[in-house]
Amino acid sequence: MRPPEALSATALQLYLTCSLKYRFQYVDRLPRLTLSENQAFGTAIHAALNWLHKARRRGHNPPLAEVLQVFEADWYAQTQAEGAKVQFDEAGDAAALGYKGRELLTQYYVLPTGRVFDSEVWFTLPLVHPATGESLDVPLRGAMDLIEVDDVIVEFKAPKRAPPITDLPDDIQVTTYAYAYEKLFGKLPREIRKVALVRTKVPRIEPQITGRDHKDFERLFHLGREVVKGVRSGVFLPSRGCWLCTDCEYRPDCDEWTGNEEEISNAQSAR
Ligand code: SF4
Asked: Is 127 a residue whose pLDDT tops 50?
């Protein structure tokens, strides 16, 4: 079957976590009838942070109230406007998460940060093995949340729980951004800061700092190549019990899944 148009850190991670969900999302492109609170909250937080960083890049530090307004407008549009389809874990979560979002952005706003070089930096780049020069025929695509002057990449997450520090060395997103940074700017990032705006009962901000080198880029290349092989060969398996199952938008499709071959050829001929 056709290879993917592009690889992204999210797509790679999704294939590794549940390749069947990857298929529903990227191959079959099934409509999402619901949206998890996780995705909705992350989108609203990112919208507000990106707006703040773009303003700071222009040399203007907008008042906190305006940053909160950006968050609230996005949150309202996603959760309360007509057609809203966010699925909350518990009743009353929309208001509670709205409060936590404001609290987290307030904490972030007063943190000392580096000077903004650029915010939401998109890239589409060839994925090349750093030692052999072999290039995948599928490009790598993504967007870095924030680049600070002095070669610092900052990535934001808004998780329910603080991510364990032990996950950091294998974080595909971090590796992808470091790879892209070197391709774009001709040098490795000096630092990669992963900032978790953790929406626990008492919301708090937890930064983790790491780096990457060419060994990590080799591994990224091999991961990308194997995922493309898996997609081309139509290897898509349910990973029941994985953490994505909790609020998977494709649960009904997964329940009805009876194998790949016939369904995929049907989906392709329908396109
Ligand atoms: S319900 Fe779980 S196993 Fe099924 S597609 Fe979703 S994440 Fe994968």
From this structure: yes
Does some domain include residue 122? yes
CA-nearest residue, atom 5 of ligand 1: 21
Pocket test for ligand 1, best of 38, 239, 246, 255 (most atoms within 8 A of CB): 239
pLDDT digit string (tens) for 8-60?
999 999 999 999 999 999 999 998 878 888 889 999 999 999 999 999 999 99
Q: What is the pLDDT of residue 262?
A: 56
- Tokens (6 digits) for 120: 């939401």
- What CATH number has the domain bearing residue 154? 3.90.320
Cβ proximity of 140 and 182 under 8 Å: no
Q: Tell me what the pLDDT averaged over the chain comes to.
A: 92
* Residue 5 is assigned to a structural domain of this protein: no
For 179-202, what is each residue's pLDDT tens digit? Answer: 999 999 999 999 999 999 999 989
50 torsion bin: left (phi>0), alpha (psi -120 to 50), beta (else): alpha
Range of the domain at 182: 35-223
- Ligand 1 center from residue 21 Cα (angstroms): 6
| Closest of 36, 197, 53 to residue 119, by C-alpha | 53
Is there an atom of ligand 1 within 6 Å of 245 CB? yes
